[in-house]
Amino acid sequence: MHEISIAQSLIDILNDNIKDIPVENNTRIVNINLKIGKLMAVVPESLEFCFEVLTKGTIMEGAKLNIENISIKAKCNNCGHEFIADDYLFVCVVCGKSDVEVISGQELQIDNFEIE
Amino acid sequence: MSIITIERKILEKNDQIAAQNRENFKKKKIFVLNMVSSPGSGKTSILENTIGILKGKVNIAVIEGDVQTDLDAKRVDKYNVPVVQIVTNGACHLDAKLVQDALSSMALKETGILFIENVGNLVCPSGYDLGEDMKVSILSTAEGDDKPLKYPAMFRNSSVLIINKIDLLPYINCKIDELIKNALLINSSLKIFKTSCTTGEGINEWCNWLQEQIHNKS
Asked: What is the model's pTM?
């Protein structure tokens, strides 16, 4: 249930970013665009639930979390082949060696948010 | 409607504090391990056995993380090493700030190794950098040989795997070769130890390796 900590960190970042924006009475954050790698073990539904609970009564209430799931991409250090490892098996599909490095799938990032 | 682009890492604050912790450890030449596992795998027993062997050879300090109680700190305290208990009050993992706060009450001068025993949980602690040199996963045989496949992030992010409770192997349906094969599919660079805190098997090998790591950092 680390999603509640992640939701709180996300809210802290948003608060940090909106403090310099002149906020009119009815300004709301409506969309939040996130990238989450599949190696981060984040359950989108849990994150949405935690975010919803933590933002009640704030200008983020009702904002939609648009989560782009990033595949786990690995690169073989033996033959250089790049492959998707969404099954979490870090074995090169070409040469069979398991000396591979992860090049994506560990993202946990907010790209942007929309206000209206 | 306007779009505000920020492109920030959600856990950036944790990562910043973890970097401060890491710098602090580097300056003091302390080798730091983040011990992660599910509840009941034997993290504290491994620590007790390790302290028993290493005490007198290297100065040891311990941070204990639990959702509730200071039972683990009390167990470690019997060995007369500095120990601080973090009670998370429900949180399922330690974060860098909790560790930084705990460090402020510890005298770490001359410390060679700091063990941070994380909250028992095979999922959440994997994404939170504490500033450690490496994560050590502990998996007991009774949990089953399929666990590395089921909880890949933890094993992928660890440098060491301790397979504990190997004395139970004759009585349970866990194939240790299968367990090791599964772990290496997730992370081929895992350094693997096989231990039993009941018989003491494997603890010396683990402690010898630890001493090499401490020597390399100091």
From this structure: 0.92
